[in-house]
């Protein structure tokens, strides 16, 4: 299974969702934000090296943390040296080796987002209950449709009881899971671990576990292995 995590607007919590969903699904998380990587990294080869032909995708996967990650470099020179279209083959190679891959796509509507969706069998759309984020989510949803990446779930991040969950489900056309505003998420992110590791009893940890169940159901219903 290859699952793309997208969010039209930056700052909606897309990378946080991708990392925690990777933990719940026991998947490798590929940090595919070539210019503004946000997931944990280490000293080994990264996605910049892979896309520049200097490293093998499977060998670049870091298994040293609580979640296996194919990290991305942080340098502008590294980003410029990449061949972005090589992302498809790199993600497929990781899928062939590990079985499950979550691709953390960049924000916006650039070509890199399209590549992540192009290689994915399904996607998770992350947004927040504010008009600017919801507008961009609609555009990301339209792109996913064009590229035939089925919508497995919508995540309404930093949601409250007053958030328009039913409206979001109707407008975006998929099941909505909510992740509450939570200090546990920020603390886990600062510690570089999933919420389920840092605060397993928190509402946010329960939300990510529920999201993983929703994704697995959606993929099964489409006849795709999870």
Note down, in words, how this protein is organized:
- 44% of the residues lie in helices and 16% in strands.
- It has a single domain, classed as Rossmann fold (3-Layer(aba) Sandwich), CATH 3.40.50.
- It has a seven-stranded parallel β-sheet, sandwiched between helices.
- Helix 1 crosses helix 10.
- 50% of the residues are buried.
- The mean pLDDT is 90.
- It has ten helices and seven strands.
- The chain is globular, with a radius of gyration of 16 Å.
- With 226 residues, it is an alpha/beta fold.
Keywords:
single chain, 226 residues, alpha/beta, Rossmann fold, seven-stranded parallel sheet, 10 helices, 7 strands, 16% strand, globular, ATP binding, ParA/MinD_ATPase, CobQ/CobB/MinD/ParA_Nub-bd_dom, Chromosome partitioning protein ParA
Give the neighbour order of strands across the main sheet.
3-2-4-1-5-6-7
User: What is the total domain count?
Assistant: 1
Number of helices, counting only DSSP H or I runs of 4 residues or more: 10
Compute the number of strand runs. Answer: 7
Q: Rg to the nearest angstrom? A: 16 Å
Mean pLDDT: 90
Uncertain spans, ≥5 residues at pLDDT below 50? none
> Major sheet, described briefly?
7 strands, parallel
State the CATH class: Alpha Beta
Question: According to CATH, what is the topology?
Answer: Rossmann fold
Question: CATH H level: which superfamily?
Answer: P-loop containing nucleotide triphosphate hydrolases
GO molecular function: ATP binding; ATP hydrolysis activity
GO biological process, one term: negative regulation of cell division
Protein name: Chromosome partitioning protein ParA
InterPro entries: CobQ/CobB/MinD/ParA_Nub-bd_dom, P-loop_NTPase, ParA/MinD_ATPase
